[in-house]
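hiii, so i know i said id send this last week but things got crazy w the move. better late than never?? heres the sequnce for the chain we talked about at the cafe, plus the structure i predicted for it. fair warning i was half asleep when i ran it
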Amino acid sequence: MDTIEPFTFLVTGATGQIGSEVVRRIAGRGQRVRALVRASSASPRRTSLASLPGVTMVEGDYRDRTSLDRACRGADFVIATASVGAPHGEYTYQNVDVQGNAALFAASLAAGVQHLCFISTIRASEFTRVPMLAAKAKAEAALEHSGLDYTILRVSDIIKPDALLVEAADALAGRSLPVMGDGSALSAPMFGFDLAELCVRSHAISSVQRRCVDVGGPEILSGIERAEAIAQAVGMEDDPPLEYCPPPSAEQIAAIADPALRGQMLWQAIAAVNDFVAEMDEVCLMFSVRLTSIGDYIGQHIEAVQGILAQENKGISNGNQAAEP
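okay and structure toks below
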């Protein structure tokens, strides 16, 4: 009987929140994974990923085409999750998200890669005043004209699990939950592990080849509804108290000297008053997945939420004892 050889995946941004989850999921399927990391990376995830069966850590840099050619050679599929996020040091939106991605696409084509999955942001091309979104839009255009088979997953809103559990602990303690602007803007909050699953499956879904697909979580929520979902998940019957946080004004944004920080503040202001949503029913059917809601996740981790409160109470108790004469 012939043995079916496993595929080889190259995952860029492998030590990031999304990239690390992609690597784990591919390795868990018995496939080979090359995890691209910078030589200078000291992330704890690097060590944990290197211990997984089938995972090879490959050093490279989006600014170094030779290293990308080496990483792509022999790869069947590429999942591109790397992004600057916030410019720092020598890493900018231009030389990583724009030029770096273009170099990755060219290296993938030269290596005969069968499919490349790229993570972008919903409505990026509409808000190019935001440097991060402008870079995403340029990378999308480069991929669409690269000659590769591809899938672009445009994400609505990524949930940070640790921060969500802290919010849940605040709700359980009766504290206010933050809401940006007037709380009416809509998004479809999505967990990184769900996005990772879509990335891993994308090469095998014929209906998403050479397509841009808007993706998000299973619920479309306003900021107020998101806070209410958190409160309901910890058993609160009444609506939670809310702390309305005004978005940065045009004057405040203009007064910021640092271009990177100014771009981030502009993005906050735009997100506070615009909808970034994805209807996921059809996408879930195409990918054969069930997505995780905010309530589901908090319910699965309610002991962790209670543990956060217990640690707070212990710290308060120890502080009171230390203050006693």
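btw The CA atoms of residues 26 and 289 lie 16 Å apart. thought thatd interest u
miss u guys!!
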